[in-house]
Each structure stands twice: as structure tokens, then as C-alpha cells.
Amino acid sequence: MDTITIKDIARALNISTSTVSRALRDSYEINPETKRLVTEYAERLNYRPNPIALSLKENRSRVIGVIVPQIANNFFSQVINGIEAIAYNRGYHVIIFQSHESYEREMLTVQQAVARRADGLLISLASGTHDVTYLRALQEKKLPIVLFDRISKDLDTLSVTADNFGGAFAATEHLIKAGRQRIVHLTMPAHISVTQERLAGYRAALEQYGLVYDENLVRYGQFGPDEVESIVDELLKLSPDAFFAAGDRLAIGCLSALKKRNVAIPETVSLIGFTNITVADLLAPAMTTVEQPSLEIGQLAAEQLINLIEGKKTTAPPTSLKIPTQLIVRASSQS
Which of 77, 188, 228, 247 could form a cystine bridge with 253, CB 3.0-4.6 A? Predict the structure, then answer.
């Protein structure tokens, strides 16, 4: 099939190409009825903007750079799906980079994105990133940047995250209401924003229900496959009755370690994760987890960035946008 163009739409509707172009850009100069006719016709014939033509006309690359810690992480792969869906519909291409949790690689990939003339950046910070001075320097050069999931309070820009505090509070509250009182919290490095937010939710639930916060029941780290089992061994000496992990992959590591040690789940120890990985309901027992709205985070982050690129939010102050989470209760926490 031949690709439909603005000229084709204009000819079919007997209007000028400039009217079609402005209607597709949602210009205030075009009346609502004309916009409706143009957009409905364009959608019916699957019209898509030509990125090369647009980039030449607008002096923009129509490219967005996306930097994530790991594409293999199911959460980030779903975020990327959301980003690409919005970018495609608005005539942008996406180039994806991985930092592999390294500050140095993050800086390098950002430099590569800038070298390829990306119009803006979507970034989830690496666990190794403590300093965002290099991003602030790019921002001062008017490069639009939106942070998602892992953010920094030291960078004054738009951010899109899940409600990590609310999700952690709901998970901890669920365990407390099930009669659990010695709840382990396994989480990521302490400086990461999602670590701080989920820890705060965990602590707030303990406080609300009159339980003492015990630092011995909290562990921070990257927790590779070989580390989880030794950590679980240490924690079992403290007689916990529940494990709340700040990520599903970490929770699955706990599940495996507990089963190897013949610890009954949930009869002896309850288990909750965070993300709602696709196999969570297929595990034995099926795993209770906090559903993190990954697709929606990607879509909203992409929308915010493209609005910044296109100057639709030049006067709006930077804001932090949070998307609600949901606790999905399954067998691993139901005794």
C-alpha cells in the first residue's frame, strides 16, 4: 500500500494542506469540526507523519533517547513498550540505551544520545548514580529531560513514578492484618529514590499499627543470585514471619531460598513482592505482589517529554507525577 500523505488528506477533504497540517497538530487556529474530520480521516487510512520530512522542516531529529538500567528487567521492557507506543503515534523514533546500573555507562549513553541529536531524554537512573550534575548541565543547554521510576530530587525536572509509598504501605498493612509482626524488608541500595519511598511506606504501616521498626529486619543491596540465600539464612535466625521484597525478582530469589530450606509459605512465612512480574501467578505458591503500572509510566513519561520538546509546557513548573499501584493478593500471603 502507498503511504498516505497530508496532500492526499487535503485532496480528499477539499481543504488546503496547511489546514490539514495544523489540524493534525491540534492548532487553536482550526475549528473543532475541521479537526474532527481531518483526524478521523487520517486514523481511518492509518496516516503517520513522515519523521524525516518533519525533522527537516522543524530542525528537529524526531528522536527520543531512552536510558534504562536493564532492558532484561520486565518492568523496564514494559515501560519501553509504553514509550514507543506514544512516540510512534506522535511521529517520533526511539533509541534505547542500557546503563547496566553504572554511573559511567549512564553518562556515556547520554552522551551518545546527545551526539545523535536526540530531541529529548527519558531516563531511569542507574543504581550507581549519586550525582546528576551532568544532566543539569544538559538541561541548562535547553535539552528536555524527563525522569521516570528512579528519579533525583537534585534535578529540577518532570518525573513520572509509581506510588511506591502507597504500594509498600498496602503490602505491609496486608501482612500485619494477616497477623504478621516480624516483617523482613529486602530492598535496593539506600540512595535510590524507589528504595526510600518503599521503605517509608513500610515504616509508616508499622507505625500506624503500633509495631516497632527493627533495622535488623531491613537489608539493602543489589542481591545477586548467590547473595539472596546467605541473606535469607541470616534473617531466618531472627525468626521473621514475613518477607516483603522491594522487587519481584528479589522476591522470587527469597521464594527459592525459603523452599530449599523447607520453610512453609505462607504457613510459616508470608511473602510479597513488588512489580507484578508476568510469572507471579504461576509460581508455587502464586506470589502476592504490588502491581507497578509500567506501561502507563512509559506512556505518561513519553507524553510529558514530547510536550516539553514541542513547547507545550514551557511555562509550567516541573512536577512529580505519581501513578497509583495495586496490591494483588495471592497464595503466598494467605495463611
Answer: 228
